[in-house]
Amino acid sequence: MRPIIPEADILHFSLEGLLPKDHWLALNCELGTLALLSIKNDTAHPLLLIERQFTPAELFLILPLLRSFPTYCPYEVILASFASGNLTDKNIERARTQLHEALEVGLWDQQMRPVRNVMARARVKIRAFGLEINPILEVGYVLMPASSLRRLQG
Amino acid sequence: MSDILYFPLQDILSRGHLLAVQPTTGIVSHLYSCEEGPRIQGACIATESELRALLPLLQSYPHCCPYERVLASYNTSSDMVADDELVARVGAWLSEAENTEAWDTQLRPVRNILSRIRLKLLPLGLDIASVLGSGYLLCTPPARSPAKSRLQAARELCGLSQQEVADQIETTALNVSRWERGITRPGPYFRAKLCQLFGKSPDELDLGPAPALAGDGATVIHELGEHGGN
After folding, report:
1. Whole-structure pTM value
2. Which end of chain A, N or C, is surrounded by fewer C-beta atoms within 10 Å?
3. Inter-chain contacts counted by CB atoms under 8 A, chains A and B
4. Integer CA distances (angstroms), B12 to A55, B46, B117, in order
5. What is the ipTM for the molecules in this complex?
């Protein structure tokens, strides 16, 4: 069992390689806020660089992505989290079966459309943190630096 | 980044801790740093009106924020914090309305708002105290020690109930209960009566004036919600 609503209301992620050194993301699951924290060099005081609020549906997509980093987050995990807000092995297995069945009958897009719609909104918000949510064809989503994606596209 | 306001609130927050307020979003965060890096200890979201009442208190700290400043900020429509001219006008109006019903009517919405934001701030380690006749002050939440207070111990030693103590010093059992739990502190009049009743000094009953406000000689009432109903 891996509950998506964690024991602690505020989760901190260093995302090494994605965020600059001494920068942390703080996800407040209760308020639905994501904050980028840093440390002031001269005083060692914490700094709040940016903070955005996410809807619960957006939060259900962001959290598995953050937890999966540095690897990608598979579609079935994203879908299970989005559908139930509760990441259990059973839910993930059910989402995997749904996606296989949808693929076989050509309904993959229809199955994933609500996820993509919410992901599109979350993506816009998370760009403010210098991050990009990048889809990996037929695999899932991964967090990347926003600039890297621009380089790939440009 | 520029619209985030930081308040170290020394003597309320631990050293190195900060309160970060974002006026645009209303998010109030308690930040600190540890070996692992910067952390958020807790956060709440304040409404615009709550923020209007809270910001002058934060900016006045460590001093008491006068009624006129809170009221002017609460009623201002453009900026979150009222300018000095508006504060002066509100102050003059409050002086005229003092001891009338209008004074109370005007301040009631502010008290209600402060009661709400106070409940949100308590988990962040902050409290709002009302300083009678002056204004409002940010402070540390009262310690809710499970141990018996000295006042309660003295009462039980005498075999008296809270109601019997209240009857003897001519107050209510609710007040006695609040004093024993440390929610409010008795003023000089009731301090003297309690000392006389139990034959002890104020220190022996742990009834000394509140340290943060000892110089003001003011009475601190932590329970704004109950006070707000006046």
Report:
1. 0.70
2. C
3. 66
4. 33, 20, 17
5. 0.81
